[in-house]
Amino acid sequence: MNIGEHDARIITKDICSDCGSQCCKLGGVVATKNESDAITERGYPNHFVKLKCDVYGIDWGKDGSCVYLNDSGCSIYHVRPLGCRMFPVVQTRNHDVILVKCPLASSLSDDEISTRKRILLQRPNYVIRESEHLRQNHEKDLRMRIAKYEHERV
Ligand code: SF4
User: Fold this and answer.
1) At what angle do helices 125-136 and 139-146 cross, to 10 degrees?
2) pTM of the predicted model as reported, rounded to 2 decimal places
3) Domain that includes residue 9, residue range
4) Cβ-proximal residues to 93 (8 Å cutoff; 6+ apart), any chain
5) Rounded to whole angstroms, how far apart are CA atoms 118 and 34?
6) Alpha-carbon gap, residue 107 to 101, rounded angstroms
7) Sorting pLDDT into bands at 50, 70 and 90, what band is 137?
8) 152, β-bridge pairs
9) Cβ–ligand 1 contact at 69 (below 6 Å)
10) Which of 33, 34, 85, 109 would give a disulfide with 54, using CB separation of 3.0 to 4.6 Å?
11) How many CA atoms lie within 13 A of 92 on its CB side?
């Protein structure tokens, strides 16, 4: 059976909502200028902090939750940044790409994982550096939260 994009989105939203959107509580989300402009131009509040070049960090609360996360999930779902769209495939420093074994991971085909990896590897290095830097500031909390999930290199 071929799952259409609409059905795939419903399945994804269901899995993520059952999980409680834990990935949105990890901190360290970055957006490019184009991505942050696309979000604010649609009337969403501006929660971006300029980092370097055209990289912006998204504010998060003390518990590491992204400010765009609410009780119904991501409030900017249709315009969320690339790193959010590619999760649970995540690029780390040194060009390693990992698959975080969250509940969504097992619903992804090998092709989908490869496509996400290819898209992530096209991002400029400084985007990855800034994201990692943000995460280091919350490293202890992050380690505790990410420890919930295994991960593997892909
Ligand atoms: S922008 Fe949306 S998907 Fe990305 S971390 Fe924030 S709430 Fe989650």
Assistant:
1) 100
2) 0.82
3) 3-153
4) 128, 129, 132
5) 20
6) 10
7) low
8) 99
9) yes
10) 33
11) 12
Q: Which atom of ligand 1 is nearest to the CA of 26?
A: 5
Say how many Å lie between the CA of residue 4 and the centre of ligand 1: 23
Atom of ligand 1 nearest to the CA of 87: 3
- Give the residue whose CA is nearest to atom 8 of ligand 1: 24
Q: Provide the β-strand partners of residue 48.
A: 58
Q: By CB neighbour count within 10 A (0-12 exposed, 13-18 middle, 19+ buried), where does 18 fall?
A: exposed
- Cα of 1 from ligand 1 centre, angstroms: 30
Q: What average pLDDT does the segment 100-109 reach? A: 90
Taking only the tens place, the pLDDT of each residue in 36-52 is 999 999 999 999 988 88
Q: State how far the Cα of 132 lies from the Cα of 12, in Å rounded to an integer.
A: 26
CA angle 136, 32, 60 (to 5 degrees): 45
Ligand 1, atom 1: closest residue by C-alpha? 80
Cα distance between residue 115 and residue 152, in whole Å? 16
Weakest mean pLDDT among 11-15, 53-57, 72-76, 97-101? 11-15
The number of distinct structural domains making up the chain is 1
- pLDDT value for 31: 92
Is any atom of ligand 1 closer than 6 Å to the C-beta of 76? yes
